[in-house]
Amino acid sequence: MSQLMVVSMLLFFALSVPVAVSIGLASMLGVAYDGQMTWLVIAQQIYAALDKYPLVAVPFFILAGNLMEAGGISERMVDFAKSVVGGVQGGLACSCVLTCMIFAAVAGSSVATTFAVGAILIPAMVKHGYPKPFAASLQASAAELGVIIPPSIPMILFAVATDTSVGELFIAGIGPGLLIGGALMVYVWLYARRHGYGKHDGDGRLALWPAFKRSWLALLMPVIILGGIYGGIFTPTEASAVAVVYALAVGIFVYRKITFSSLSHTLHRSVISTAVIMFVIANAGVFGFLLNRAGIPAALGDWLGQLFSDKYTFLLGVNVALFIIGMFIETSASIVVLAPLLLPVAMQFGVDPAHFGVIMVVNLALGMVTPPFGVNLFAACAVANLSIERLIRPLLPFVAVVVACLMVITYVPEISLFFKELVYGR
């Protein structure tokens, strides 16, 4: 049964059937082939997959990110980032990375980050002389910080799929997010100096204090969300609702950017994005149940235990496999299907669950910027009005930077676990 399900799912992928539908059809074939289960199992497992409290955070964080874009919060974050790093050569490109890091501390979505920040900074970088393919590639790469720096929707999905603490996963993502963001800023600064770009990046930027006064309400948002979570004021799920209320209040009553028509459009976008993710989770829940029933996790654990002699070779093998998988399979589906299979094996090798969750999320985040199905690439292409082929060459160095950071994150677990142990004491 399991072989039929996996082969049929891959066949559907090859035929360009949508990911969620492919998983669902493969699950239906598995139920039909088994012969001992009724079709009612599918409905039961769909309900079980979705009936999890942490998943409530997914639609709220998606909505919060869209409200930040519509309400002018992201625009003020850009102005503040430009005031901090925009005064040096290449500072505008560095501002793109820094803005994505700040925006990621609320939105939890890389696609939302691409549209919200890219719509402002890609045209600005082109105006200052940066090649448009470089600007779009930088935006697509920096936006993946949206799923690494907490809060993160993929981390919520990993926690739900593996019964891991959402809070521990969130705080474990801080160090890796800062490392990747810092490495990207160093690279674009060196690139700008080498090629002579960005000599006038400081033109028209606000000084630090005026920019802060203009954007302090926007900057207060991640402080409230992350401070509330780690201060024990509210849970990560409750924080998502707080983010929505805050973004809505600031966008309507302070910045006055959100109107009835724009709010309707924002809600529409958020509902569609949420439905897509939930549809994937529902079908992946059935798929995972059938694989568990067939004993695949135990068999996979035994096989990987024989294949790899220690955790270092195991983690290397996982990185290679996830990098390839992330290129072809959507992130949410990969996490919900693979995390319950791989985490028990990782724990057998002594890998901390939060550390492994970060490794998995960073790996699959790379899939968002690599062809053929990189969602960030398509989003950046849409914003920049470019074909995806023109982004491949300038994208390669950014991928190399993130891969190098991934290796450091993988083999230096303290980067992920330092803040976790500082807060949770273990």
From TrEMBL:
Molecular function terms, GO-annotated: transmembrane transporter activity
Residue ranges of the TM segments: 111-130, 142-161, 167-190, 215-233, 239-258, 270-292, 312-343, 355-375, 395-419
This protein's UniProt keywords: Cell inner membrane, Cell membrane, Membrane, Transmembrane, Transmembrane helix, Transport
Gene Ontology terms: cellular component: plasma membrane
Localization per record: Cell inner membrane
Membrane topology: Multi-pass membrane protein
One protein family per Pfam: DctM
Domain TRAP C4-dicarboxylate transport system permease DctM subunit: 6-415
Entries under NCBIfam families matching the protein: dctM (TIGR00786)
Family: Belongs to the TRAP transporter large permease family.
UniProt subunit comment: The complex comprises the extracytoplasmic solute receptor protein and the two transmembrane proteins.
Function: Part of the tripartite ATP-independent periplasmic (TRAP) transport system.
Name assigned to this protein: TRAP transporter large permease protein
